[in-house]
Amino acid sequence: MKNGEIAGHVASRRDETAGRRHDVLVIGGGNAALCAAISARRAGASVLVLEAAPQFYRGGNTRHTRNMRCAHDSATETLSGPYTEDEFWEDLKRVTQGRTDEELARHMIAQSKEMLTWIVDQGVRFQPSLGGTLSLGRTNSFFLGGGRAMLNALYATAEQLGVEIRYDAEVVGLEIENGMFLSATVKEQTGTSQVRAGALVAASGGFEANIDWLKQGWGEIAGNFLIRGTPYNRGTILRILIDNDIQQIGDVTQCHAVAIDARAPKFDGGIITRLDCVIYGIVVNKNCERFYDEGEDIWPKRYAIWGRLVAAQPDQIAYIIFDARSLELFMPSLFPPIKGDSIAELAGQLGLDPEKLTKTVATFNNAVQPGTFDPDNYDDCATAGLTPPKTHWARKIEQGPFYAYPVRPGITFTYLGVKVNKEARMIMSDGKPAANMFAAGEIMAGNVLGQGYAAGIGMTIGSVFGRAAGQGAAKHARN
Amino acid sequence: MHATSALAEADRLMTVCNSCRYCEGICAVFPAMEMRRAFSDGDLNYLANLCHGCSACYYDCQFSPPHEFNVNVPATMAKVRTESYEAYAWPGFLAPTFRRNGLVISIAACVSVFAFIVGFVALRDPSVLFGTHTGPGAFYKLMPHNTMAVLFGAAFLYAMIAIAMGIRNFWRDIGEPANTLTKATPLWQAIKDASSLRYLDGGGVGCMNDEDKPTDTRRIYHHLTFYGFLLCFAATTTATGYHYLLGLEAPYPWYDLPVLLGTLGGLGLVIGPIGLLRAKFQRDRELVEARSYGMDVGFLVMLLLTSITGLLLLVLRATPAMGMLLALHIGIVFALFITMPYGKFVHGFYRFLALVRYAKERSDAH
Ligand SMILES: Cc1cc2nc3c(=O)[nH]c(=O)nc-3n(C[C@H](O)[C@H](O)[C@H](O)COP(=O)(O)OP(=O)(O)OC[C@H]3O[C@@H](n4cnc5c(N)ncnc54)[C@H](O)[C@@H]3O)c2cc1C
Ligand code: HEM
Ligand code: SF4
Ligand code: SF4
Question: Using CA atoms, how far apart are residues B102 and B88, in angstroms rounded to an integer?
């Protein structure tokens, strides 16, 4: 449409037709997008949300989440003790090994305190952490019913406030002029159309579902990766933004990757394919060789290195081997373990060389030193004279039946993103803030997470920067 | 492995859910599941009867259909639950009555009503059926009180015995020792949980019925139904007491206790079932269990007919319509009683007992 018509449409904002101009356009439909849409609407702006996925799959990786990490000064109904800003910062510094923007990260942590009540005000409910997976009851707030329940609440609130939401609406192009967003091209079943808005919030997640992009960093081996979450996060918007002079942050290979059951579907297998048994057994590659200290640290602290470790093995596959004594020490998972009465039989089932695997297990067993096994704490069960060593929870694998899980790298989410400031405003390659473009969530997570991960921080990044982006965008569009 | 395909599917789902546990804060089913790693048929029947069908876990699940993991806990649990009613039925040869339950109940109701009409006519003469009777003992012009009492006493006793036998089968199947039922703490907890329908609230905001937005309507309508039923039951019991202990004969004046209780209960038993029927018709098709549909609707309609005929009888008891209405009302009530062990009515018992076991498991775990 021509420019003259745009002015006309501004005047008739209530008009629901396709050519309508909104104050704020939000691209994406997850936590970050909804927090932005709600806060922009609450600030008085008219808001359009474009979500690429159909209604059932709305909300990308947020559907698969369980908790968020917010600082708080005292225990609450759902949190078992205080978690100060400083402690949160120390944790973040440790997991990223300093690869974070301190000012931005501290700002986010300070804001996270308010998020605990803000998110509840938007209808989201928390539960006390019960059985749970990891011991996060003090630091993390768990969504009652999980991420999809959380999203349902946010969508209900957004709809009630009058946010317009379109599903099956993938944004495939952005018109940006001198750091100024003008319009977006949307592909829907009915065809392709233009959408104009006064300000843009890009909250379209990472690019983990775009295997070709992953290959640019990882090489061909990325073809063997499993994607734990949504197939809709293809990084289309991220690519367009970077190509339009927005400053890039992070590199292609930085991501959260864990070792998940190799039998999981290529996409969207979610949480239930994770395996928490590495520390109770040994992990071998397809040549029946061990390659890393399985007992290096307690599982919650180390699980996220195993994606990379397995990615470095031939054919990107590995096998966790353990015996009957360990079978019930960890959380159950979707697929049953593969079982054999002897190590050789197990090897046969796995398609491994029975002789080699028997030898690897025997070598390991011979190196195991006496100790007192404690499944939940650091213990003194270790190997001696073995490379690589196993430094905790080393027990002989000797009591049949024997079990194995095949594992592959499972990509949770990617860190490469666009640079933003505290307002969640995008930064242009010349260092200047963009006029009317904001980003929130996974698409800018790399600003805070240069590497590493602390459980629940994905939601924190999305909520804090989502709310800020919505407010900033509304303010810009209404001025 | 499992006795039926529904049980096998329930096992598959519990394995999925046990690996996920996102729903653990919503209701009792998931914490009970977490206490187990493998699921026998007895375990699954217990979990199915613990499920209140609130459907929150369906709308909250990232793996519900069309996702390939196809996780639909409420529908699967409903299927298992329906099959479990059949498996526990006593005597066993009447178990198939659960299959075409709607039909069975309609036939029972018709036969029973018809028998009362014929009975009135045969016992007295046709004119009493259409005459106007007022004052104490008016109802017994149609049928002597003692006959009525014996007939209903016997029907009620039979229903209670059959239900008790079903309960015994359930308790054995889930593998719970009998002495759990003698422990005050879990019993009291279960009474609180059942009388408030604690787990029909979607974890606090209300259950879900046809979309992801919660409402509390099913719980409210169930309360009206349940307490309405209890009030009607109390009305009948009071009236029996009046008759035998105080020598006061029905019909009673409108301000007397049996009538007040009955009217109040009857109103609940009209509004409640209508609300539940409406929710049932609006229900998301993905959540409807085809096998129990006839049974559910049959039970609701029977409750509705009981209350409507009862209230009509109250209003029209001084008119010539009384005779027919009385036959209709007590015919329906009689059919309700004798079909109780073979229909939806048993859900209350099994659910309550599942709650008792859950309360005990919870306190053992702490
Ligand atoms: C299995 C699993 C478990 C997790 N658990 C947790 C947890 O417990 N706590 C936690 O903090 N983090 C967790 N995470 C990480 C968390 O999911 C992400 O950090 C978070 O979802 C990011 O939020 P977001 O809104 O930025 O992106 P998303 O939630 O992924 O949303 C992105 C949205 O953008 C849409 N989109 C993409 N491209 C386009 C386009 N071109 N046009 C229109 N729309 C588009 C997508 O459809 C999607 O709706 C988990 C991740 C996975 C995979
Ligand atoms: C221990 C006591 C009881 C408990 C825990 C209980 C629980 C439940 C639950 C959880 C449901 C499912 C709700 C739904 O699908 O909408 C239900 C349905 C129902 N209950 Fe009860 N109930 C109890 C006793 C009773 C009694 C005594 C009556 C009436 C006589 C009754 C009548 C009904 C009816 C009519 C339905 C709806 C059937 C349907 O729509 O499928 N309940 N009950
Ligand atoms: S119903 Fe779905 S979300 Fe809930 S516990 Fe089961 S798998 Fe998880
Ligand atoms: S009671 Fe509700 S949340 Fe619990 S299993 Fe049944 S349907 Fe799911």
Answer: 19
- Identify whether the C-beta of residue B332 lies closer than 8 Å to the C-beta of residue B309: yes
- For residue A328, the chain B residues in CB contact (below 8 A) are 37
CB contact under 8 A, A145 and B57: yes
**How many residue pairs bridge chain A and chain B with CB atoms within 8 Å of each other?**
86
| Spatial separation of the C-alpha atoms in residues A168 and A31, rounded to whole Å | 17
Question: Does the pLDDT at position A11 exceed 50?
Answer: no
| Cα of A392 from ligand 1 centre, angstroms | 35
Nearest to A332 among B19, B63, B205 (CB): B19
Contact A465, A424 (CB under 8 A): yes
- Residue ranges, CATH 1.20.950, chain B: 92-183+191-346
**CA atoms A23, A29, A32, A38: torsion sign:** positive
Whether B351 lines ligand 2, by a CB cut-off of 6 Å, is yes
Higher pLDDT, A334 or B123: A334
Residue nearest atom 6 in ligand 3 by C-alpha distance = B17
Residue for token pair 């859950």: B358
Which residues does residue A285 pair with via DSSP β-bridges, in sequence order?
A318
pLDDT digits (tens, 9 = 90+) for B310-325: 999 999 988 998 889 9
Q: Of all protein residues, whose CA lies closest to atom 41 belonging to ligand 1?
A: A171
Residues of B in contact with A273 (CB under 8 A): 19
Q: Given an 8 Å threshold on Cβ–Cβ distance, is B19 in contact with A149?
A: no
In CATH, A259-410 is 3.90.700.10: yes
3-state secondary structure labels for all residues of B139-194? HHHCCCHHHHHHHHHHHHHHHHHHHHHHHHHHHHHCCCCHHHHHCHHHHHHHHHHH
Contact A333, A320 (CB under 8 A): no
Chain A residue whose CA is closest to B16: A334
CA distance A40 to A476: 10
* Closest chain B residue by Cα to residue A159: B213
Domain coordinates in residue numbering, chain A: 15-252+415-478, 259-410
Q: H or E stretch including B333?
A: helix B322-339
Residue owning the nearest CA to atom 10 of ligand 1: A456
The CATH superfamily label for domain A15-252+415-478 reads FAD/NAD(P)-binding domain (3.50.50.60)
- Is a pLDDT exceeding 80 seen at residue A56? yes
**Verdict on whether the full-model pTM lies above 0.90:** yes
> Residue A129 — pLDDT band, cuts 50, 70, 90?
low
Identify which of A324, A327, A328 has the alpha carbon closest to the alpha carbon of residue A343: A324
In CATH, the number for domain B92-183+191-346 is 1.20.950
Give long-range contacts, CB 8 A cutoff, 24+ apart: A72-81.
A72/A113, A72/A116, A73/A113, A75/A138, A76/A116, A77/A128, A78/A126, A78/A127, A78/A128, A78/A129, A78/A141, A78/A142, A79/A137, A79/A138, A79/A139, A79/A140, A79/A141, A80/A129, A80/A137, A80/A138, A81/A138
- Whether pLDDT at A345 is above 60: yes
Q: Which atom of ligand 1 is nearest to the CA of A457?
A: 11
Three-state DSSP class for A361? helix
Cα dihedral sign for A413, A418, A421, A423? Answer: negative
Closest CA to A221 of A152, A83, A316: A316
**Ligand 3: centre distance to CA A280 (Å):** 26
Contact flag B25-A142 (C-beta cutoff 8 Å): yes
